[in-house]
Each structure stands twice: as C-alpha cells, then as structure tokens.
Amino acid sequence: MAVFSRGFGARRRDTDPHLPPGQYLTEDFPVLSAGPTPRIDTDEWSFSIRNEHGEVVSWDWAQLMDMSIEDVSTDIHCVTRWSKLGTSWRGVSIDTLMAQVETDAQFAMAHSYGGYTTNIPFEDLLDGKAWVAFEFDGEPLDPEHGGPARLLVPHLYFWKSAKWVNGLVLMDEDAPGFWEQNGYNMHGDPWTEERYW
Amino acid sequence: MIVGGWRPAEVVDVVDASSHARVLRVRVTDWPGNDAGQHIDIRLTAEDGYQAERSYSVGSYGAGDIIELAVDEVPDGEVSPYLVRDVAVGDQLEVKGPLGGYFVWRAGGVVPVQLIAGGSGIVPLRAIARAMSDAGVAASGRLLYFVRTPEDAIYRDELTRDAEAGGVPVTWAYTRGAPDGWQGRVGRLDDSGIAAASWRPDDEPLVFVCGPTRFVEHVADTLVRLGHPASSIRTERFGGA
C-alpha cells in the first residue's frame, strides 16, 4: 500500500540517470567516519598486501609514486544517501599492485590507520575497478577524506573505499569488517541498494 | 540493530524547537524499538509518486511505537524544509530502521560517558542521556552542548529540566551569543574549555561527538590532543566539508 506525504514535493530535485535508487545529489563532499581523523605523514606511510599464504608485499610512499598513476573520473555513492557525480581522483590501480602478488583468494579485507576495516570480494578490486587514491580534484587528499591515501572502489557504497588505507589482507572466506559487523551489507552495490543486512 | 523494510508512519505531534528546527513524534507501524543513538531512514512520496529518502537520528529510545525526531532545516534542502515547515499531525511518511550499531549506548554499557553535541547533533545524544538517566547512571554522564545562541538549542528546556531533576548534567557553550547574565566566554571553545567541561582521560570515558563536520573534526582533534585514546571517541558527522 502506497503511503503519500501530503504536500511533499514542492522542492523536488531533478532526477539524474546516474543516481542509484534512494540517493540524492550533493555538491558538497560530506565526511563520514567513526572516530577522530588519523593524521599520517607520507614518510611514515606504507601499504602492504598479504596473500592467503601469509606472504607480504609492501610499498612506501616513494615506491607508490614511482608506479603507474592513473586519472580516475567517477561517481561516488554513500550509503547515507548522498551521491557526488563526476569526481576526479589520481591513484594507483589495485591491478598494478597485484602484479607483484600471487593469490587465488576470493575476498579481501582492507585495513586502515586508526583500525578501520572493510571486506570486499576480491573481484570487485580488480580489472580497473579499484585504486589506492591520493589526489582528489587536483589536490593531495585531505586527512578528513582519508589522506594521504584511501582505497577508491567507486562502484560500491563509499564505506568500502576505506580511508587512511594501509593494506589488504586476502582471504579464502569472507568475513565482516567494521561497518559490516555494525549492520551494513557484506557487498554494498548501490544500484541494488545493498545497504544493510 | 534491526532494519526491515519500509514501515508506514504517521506524524502524531509537532513542536517548534527553534526558529529553524522542529521536534516530530511519529507513530511507526510494527516499530521494533531502538537503541539510544540509532538513526532511521525516512521516505517521503509525493502524490505523483516522486520520492526522496534521507537519514535522521532518533531522539528517543526503547520500546513503543512512537519515535521522536528533531529536524533542523537545511537551507536549500529538499526534505528538511518540508519536515520543519509543512508537515502536520496526521501526515504520512515511511520509516526504515532502526539503523546503526556503533554510535549507541545501552543500559549496562561503559561509563563514564562524555556527550559533546554541536547544533542538531544533540538528537542522538539526547537519546543516550535519556537512556543513562533511566539506567540510573546519569551522574556518570556529562553533556557539553555547543549552540550559536540559546534560541538555537534543540531540547533546551528539557535538558535543563532533566539536569535539575538528577539527569545528565549539561554544560552550555555559546559560539555567537549568550543569555543575559552569562558569565562564561562566547565563541569557539579552546582546549582548556573543552577539558573543563569533560571527563578527564584518566576517567577513561567513552566519548560521543555529533554535529556538523567541522565541529566534529575540531572537537575530536582536541580530545585526542588532551590525551583521550582515539579508540574511545565515537563520532557522527553531518554536512559537507
């Protein structure tokens, strides 16, 4: 049974085909995180990938900057219902990093400075779908937006794009990360509204 | 945390909270109850089928099918001006939730608790203050509430009345204008001001901070500088950066 809100709709927004269901457009860049903002200098930053056999490959900031860097223009969608269209980023593709890692794992857990975690099916990080991003809109990424570097997985809700990222742990079996333990979906596709459990 | 699908809801009470905010009470069909600090999604549907959805914190907690929201009008917003200016008793909307399992406090949970709100960030903290009072641990709670002026405060009278009746004590911080006779300072609180109104790091409080992004960034950074471990500070931010 439909429920109508009397008199609602006078200030309706234009709908946009790039907007997934239940989302609204914002020009702002909202900040969402569960605690204080960690502040990490690039000279103490590192990023590592550990495969399912416990083998670890690590990169420091200078090594990351020496890798193939890509420009990414993409829409982003937050589970709290804002979307931002046509954002521009620079970063290193997970494919580029994975060229140095051997794995048959199906899942990954992203880890961050500050202790945040989020789980992602590994195939959602490959084939040009995910980056370690360190620039937004032509500027170094602000700490409150996850700088010096964050994961960027724009085809999933943005809680999967872990801020202050410092590594991936590859896993044979899926396990919930921080928000996933607190009620959010294990996958997070905005187009099918995989918001919550 | 319980989510479920969209549940029909009816507005049963509306009260002006300030010149730009209203407290709404909404009866939700089959509401399962909610923890203090949780939020909900609201869906509004125009008569031609156009829909908009937004998230709002809940100012009430516990069992019962009536939940309380306090909505601050966002200039140029689409949903909040309708909820603050237009919606009336008897109007319909839909609710999904409750949502969130982190920014919550339950009876028997960690004490002491420090609550720090900016503007409409008071809403989930109001629910936590209520839960602490009902659990008999109000004296282990402290609320520091930043508002531009006294007239901008949501729940101003309730918070004062509750504190006087043995509820969670409130420290007011005015950033633009204070009431007549106010002895304290007006403006952004510095480290010592926040420290004076808060549990000390040695007390090992759990800290909840909610408000606009820049406010939360400032307060959380200050708390870390004062010696509170980041892991004991929970934040909820709204608005852009």
Structure description:
With 197 residues, chain A is mainly β. Chain A is 7% helix and 31% strand. Chain A has three helices and eleven strands; from the N terminus they run βββαββαββββββα. Chain A has helices at residues 61-65, 94-98, 178-181, and strands at residues 24-25, 46-50, 56-60, 70-77, 82-93, 107-112, 117-121, 131-136, 139-140, 150-152, 165-171. In chain A, β8 and β9 form a beta hairpin. Chain A is globular. Chain A starts with 23 loop residues before the first strand and ends in a 16-residue tail after the last helix. With 241 residues, chain B is an alpha/beta fold. Chain B has two domains: 6-98, Beta Barrel (Elongation Factor Tu (Ef-tu), domain 3); 113-238, Rossmann fold (3-Layer(aba) Sandwich), CATH 3.40.50. Chain B contains five helices and eleven strands, in the order βββββαββαβαβαβαβ. Chain B has a six-stranded antiparallel beta sheet. In chain B, strands 9-8-7-10-11 form a five-stranded parallel beta sheet, sandwiched between helices. Chain B is globular. The interface between A and B is large, with 42 and 47 residues.
Summarize the helices and strands and which ones pair or pack.
The complex is a heterodimer of chains A (197) and B (241).
Chain A: E1 24-25, E2 46-50, E3 56-60, H1 61-65, E4 70-77, E5 82-93, H2 94-98, E6 107-112, E7 117-121, E8 131-136, E9 139-140, E10 150-152, E11 165-171, H3 178-181
Parallel strand pairs in A: 1-5, 2-11
Antiparallel strand pairs in A: 2-3, 4-5, 5-8, 6-7, 6-11, 8-9, 8-10
Chain B: E1 7-18, E2 21-28, E3 39-45, E4 51-57, E5 66-72, H1 80-86, E6 92-99, E7 113-118, H2 122-134, E8 141-147, H3 156-164, E9 170-174, H4 191-196, E10 206-212, H5 213-226, E11 233-238
Parallel strand pairs in B: 7-8, 7-10, 8-9, 10-11
Antiparallel strand pairs in B: 1-2, 1-6, 2-5, 3-4, 3-6
